[in-house]
Amino acid sequence: MPLFFKLVFLCLLVSTQSLVLVSKYTEDQNTDRKSLISFKSALKNPKVLSSWNRTSHHCSWVGVSCQRGRVVSLILSAQGLEGPLCPSLFDLSSLTVLDLSYNLLSGEVPHQISNLKRLKHLSLGDNLLSGELSSELGLLTQLQTLQLGTNSFSGKIPPGLGRLSQLNTLDLSSNGLTGSVPNQLGELIGLQLLDLGNNLLSGSPVTLFKLESLTSLDISNNSFSGPIPPEIGNLKNLSDLYIGINLFSGPLPPQIGDLSRLVNFFAPSCAITGPLPEEISNLKSLSKLDLSNNPLKCSIPKSVGRMDSLSILYLVYSELNGAIPAELGNCKNLKTLMLSFNSLSGVLPEELSKLPMLTFSADKNQLSGPLPAWFGKWNQVESLLLSNNRFTGKIPAEIGNCSALRVISLSSNVLSGEIPRELCNAVELVEIDLDGNFLTGGIDDVFLKCTNLSQLVLMNNQINGSIPEYLAELPLMVLDLDSNNLSGNIPVSLWNSLNLMEFSAANNFLEGSLPAEIGNAVQLERLVLSNNQLGGIIPKEIGNIISLSVLNLNSNMLEGNIPVELGHSVALTTLDLGNNQLSGSIPEKLADLVQLHCLVLSHNKLSGSIPSKPLYFREASIPDSSFFQHLGVFDLSHNMLSGSIPEEMGNLVVVVDLLLNNNKLAGEIPGSLSRLTNLTTLDLSGNMLTGSIPPELVDSSKLQGLYLGNNQLTGTIPGRLGGLCSLVKLNLSGNQLHGPVPRSFQRLERAYSLRFEL
């Protein structure tokens, strides 16, 4: 063949191959574009990808990165994407990075994911994905990062993940994965970060302790069991270890001391026992240690004092005993020491004064002796929590030198003497709790300099004098002065506070009247002034406090009518005006208080009828926790109420104790009361009720006390009442009942007080 024709042939061949390559290149680009369009179309909200349109090149779209026209990276984290993972997405064969985390993607991961052979980083975490983890994930052999945490995946961890030899990060946390950890995961020798926390995994995690490259391991909040294997000592590169909330048994192995690079060790609530190994002191790099809520049942080892880097130590609820070791004072970086809810005893060692303390918590122990004056050396401490111990003596004035102190709790100790005025030299104080001591003296100017104080609790002491005016100038949200010896009037200025949410001064000797200014305390949610000597009327302005949830004025000398305006306080759950001298009728408006679960108006001079269309006591939501024991009390006893018991009272389904005794109620007992299935006490005694005893009362199966004595009831005793298996007390005396005592009453095995007088 002549040279000319050879050259022509070669040119044609090269041109043909170039055309084929260009065609393939264009085809691949079009395939990528179509895959992206299909993914967008499958979303429930495709408009969030508005830049993905037909007029612009797909490589310019948000989240898309290309090389030579091919999509190599798709990063759409936190874009609000909602819908399934479209299988066409996995036709992006050049993809190396896929990040769709922090969206609302749902459904299963399609098996076509195995097409992404070049994928190095896959992040689908924080979505709503479900189903079992696809075994095809094990075919993505180039993967370096696999993040599938915080979804709803279930089933077992695929053993095939052990083939991902390039993997350095594996996050399967916060799913519903079950079963044991497959042994194949122990083959991921390059793995540096492994997070399996917050699943339902069980068995032993021993295979994970082969992963000597790990720097972070989280297996917390699972159901791993058995002793912690000594192989944990293999993880010498570990800096972060989280094994808490599991079902381990036995003590920490001595090999824990081999983790010389460990910085953070969190093992709360995992059932490990003591004693703590001495080798734990070898963790020279350890900064944070949490062994809370474990049955350690040992003392704090003195060797902990050799942990030079320790800054945070949590040993709460650990059944610790013995004294706090003085050696803890050698931990020069210790800023947070939490020892609450143990059985530690003895005095606080002075060596602790050398620490740069920020938070010291040792409440609910058996610590004793005086509170040390060296507290004043802690000029960085922000929280000092020592309640429920046996500390004695006075509160040291030196605490006022704690210039950063924000919270101090010394409640339930045996402290005495006056509260030192120097306390508020700590001007940053926000919360002071001195409840349950034997503190004396007045508080005339004690808290004057606490200009940031939002919570002051002084209840259950022997404080005397009056409530000072300056308290109204403090930004108090909670003021609790219960059970002291306070006297005089409540300062009018206190009612003008725009911050006060809780004010309690029950069980004192306060006098005077409630002023109209009480209506200015519009933020008030809880007002408790029971057992004082307050007189006068309840001002109508109290109805301005629409956020009021608890109002307790029991056992005072209040008189006049119950203000109709109280019906405006629609948030009321507890209203207790009992043991006063109130008169007039019960305002119908009170029946509109739909959240009311405790109504006590007993021992007054109220007259008229019971409101006939009650909306209260209908729904059992959770009330103010401090009044939980009063949930369901409806007490109108010892008044002069007349008329009949409304049929509608059968709708008060939340009622536990219904007390209408010692009034002038007439008519028959409504059978509708049998609908009160939560009722434990029904007292209708001392009225003028007629007719027969409704046999339907047997439907109130929780009834323990039934008091119908001293009425004008007739007929026989219903035999069905013998079915009240919970009944303890029954009084039917002082009526006009006849006939024998039903034999069924022999079944009332719990009853120890039965009165009939037939």
From TrEMBL:
Q: Which UniProt keywords apply?
A: Glycoprotein, Leucine-rich repeat, Membrane, Repeat, Signal, Transmembrane, Transmembrane helix
Hey, what's the signal peptide range on this chain?
1-18
Q: Which GO terms describe its cellular component?
A: membrane
Where in the cell is the protein located?
Membrane
Taking every annotated instance into account, which residue ranges of this chain make up the domain Leucine-rich repeat-containing N-terminal plant-type?
A: 30-66
Superkingdom of the organism of origin: Eukaryota
Query: What membrane topology does this protein have?
Result: Single-pass type I membrane protein
What family is this? Belongs to the RLP family.
Q: What is this protein called?
A: Leucine-rich repeat-containing N-terminal plant-type domain-containing protein
